[in-house]
Amino acid sequence: MFKKLAGRWPKEVVVDLAGGIRTKRQEFKLSQDALARRADVSLSLINQMERGLITDPHYSTLSRIAAALGTSVSELVGEVDPKAQAALPRAQRRGYPYLWMSDTLAETIRRWQDKSLDPGDPKHSYVIAVACLDIMWHILRYDVPGETLKDRVPADEYEERIKLVDMLSKIAQLAQDHYVGSKEADAAEVESLKERFENVVPLRVAG
């Protein structure tokens, strides 16, 4: 296993960095310019890294590029065998930054679901609705290029993402209805919720 040293990766780790970035970028059908914009780095940097002219980028730079490509730094630099990674149960794949995060998120969503069916504090319902809509936006990957969800995510993740979005959409709708119908409802927050739904829920149908 390779270790990060002083914020950078040892040179031997990034031997195939150029090929790793190029391969992942082409898998997502991204131009170098599109990847640079997604990772918030310069086009020149991406170009030089793919040409092997930059072999010791800062770890934070690698992290941004890896996140933009939907992978981890370890996979990007070739530390993890993709075939071995694919053989793992899905819950154990790409456990960045912590493997237990998926369980924690699942438990949180379950609690939101319980709260939406038996609501209490209307303000809590508002928070749940907002959180669900924010997570849906990221699950549907509106932050990356692509006309439909199938263009934005790997094929083997499509159905799973749709199912989770459907669940979160129902929770968000129940939470929104509870908040909007309460005496504590604030007009600005009600309008904000409606705008969030319009920006997320209808778009997923085209996915």
Spans of 5+ residues with little confidence (pLDDT < 50)?
1-15, 80-88
Q: Rough shape?
A: elongated
Distance between the termini: 38 Å
Q: How many helices? A: 11
**What is the SS-derived class?**
mainly alpha
Mean pLDDT: 78
Helix content: 55-70%
Quote the beta fraction. Answer: under 5%
> Sheet bearing the most strands, described?
none
Query: What's the number of extended β-strand segments?
Result: 0
| Alpha carbon gyration radius | 20 Å
Number of domains: 2
Order of helices and strands: HHHHHHHHHHH
Record the SSE blueprint.
Blueprint: H1 17-27, H2 32-39, H3 43-50, H4 59-68, H5 73-76, H6 82-87, H7 101-117, H8 122-139, H9 149-152, H10 158-180, H11 187-205
Helix pairs in contact: 2-3, 2-4, 7-10, 8-10, 8-11, 10-11
Structure description:
The structure is a single chain. The chain has 207 residues and is mainly α. It has two domains: 11-92, lambda repressor-like DNA-binding domains (434 Repressor (Amino-terminal Domain)); 101-205. 62% of the residues lie in helices and 0% in strands. It has eleven helices and no strands. The protein has helices at residues 17-27, 32-39, 43-50, 59-68, 73-76, 82-87, 101-117, 122-139, 149-152, 158-180, 187-205. The protein starts with 16 loop residues before the first helix and ends with a helix. 23% of the residues are buried.
